[in-house]
Amino acid sequence: MRWITQDLPGEVARELFAARDAGAGEQQQTVILARALGHTYFREWGRRAHGLHIAFSDIEFADFSIG
């Protein structure tokens, strides 16, 4: 199990809300989160792990806040 605490840019929240408002399901929203976490957490904004594929799956708990 991996515990991740990561700030994501506001663009991600906007993209998630837009997807939700357009009728996107959980799977489509998960793809958006995986892409954002891949870029910010695993690739450190493009500084490492180039080409790494991120799958956001088997989620037991997720807590989000918008500040």
UniProtKB/TrEMBL annotation:
<protein>
    <submittedName>
        <fullName>Terminal protein Tpg-like protein</fullName>
    </submittedName>
</protein>
